[in-house]
Design goal:
Serine Threonine Protein Phosphatase 5, Tetratricopeptide repeat, alpha+beta, three-stranded antiparallel β-sheet
Length: 287
Amino acid sequence: MNKFQSVLIGIIAMVLSVNSWALAPEIEADRLVLAGKSKIAMKDFAAARVYLDRVEPLGIKPSNEFHWLLGQVLFNEGQYVGAKKRVEQYVESGGKEAEYYEAALLLLTDIETQLADKQADIATKEKTREFAKDWEEKVSLLESNPGSVYDAKVNQLYLGADLTSSLVSHINSLLKSYVFIEGKVKNQETADHMSYSVSVSSSGDILLTTKDVKVGKRSAASAIKVSRLNAFGVNPHIGYRCSKAADSCTLLNPADNTDWMRVAKDDVAVKEIAKAFGRLIKSIQRG
């Protein structure tokens, strides 16, 4: 017997040994569901997904609880359509007697809200691109005063009481749609993140409200900070830089050129946010 044959027999023996200890599919499915449930309790949704993904390939009908657990994992990943399907299946199969019936109904409401917000974000992003494209086309025809063309477009879009109000609405809409979330799963309901909103004081200062949002058990640690930018005497040009590695863009404070806001990486969006902030400063300076 040569060395190759010895290795081959050893591998076969090891495989047979493993198979001899393999659980029946029904029992293995229960084990995987229990492991997934344990990981969800620890908020380790990625690990839970690894276990739950192995259930259906076993070729048996999984327990109803499996659909409830997988629905939670999909919701955490921002896969709301898939989550809705699984949670609905759990509720319809288990009825009112299902152990997590009320929690499942609450999650379905959260999914409905997230789907609506997602559609609103998609609409805002499409509107942003259309707005930027339309403005650039008009500027190419009216290059003598591109700022006034932009201002008129914003006023037409938001119908604010004045230009400043319209610009504030435009900026806040963009900041809401391009929230930076670290990691592959972009879900504001399950991931810590920073959110921003802008207002203008009666004295003409730009007030930036920054909320450090913590989710889950750490929600009590969320904090809000308000910073003030005096629009008078600052350059209305807002600088920014983007990082593909960090998957984000950082807008710079025009007063001292330090980091100001961090948003999701989108070249069109960050350019639009910077432009709108510049026009807002101009609008305040003109009075």
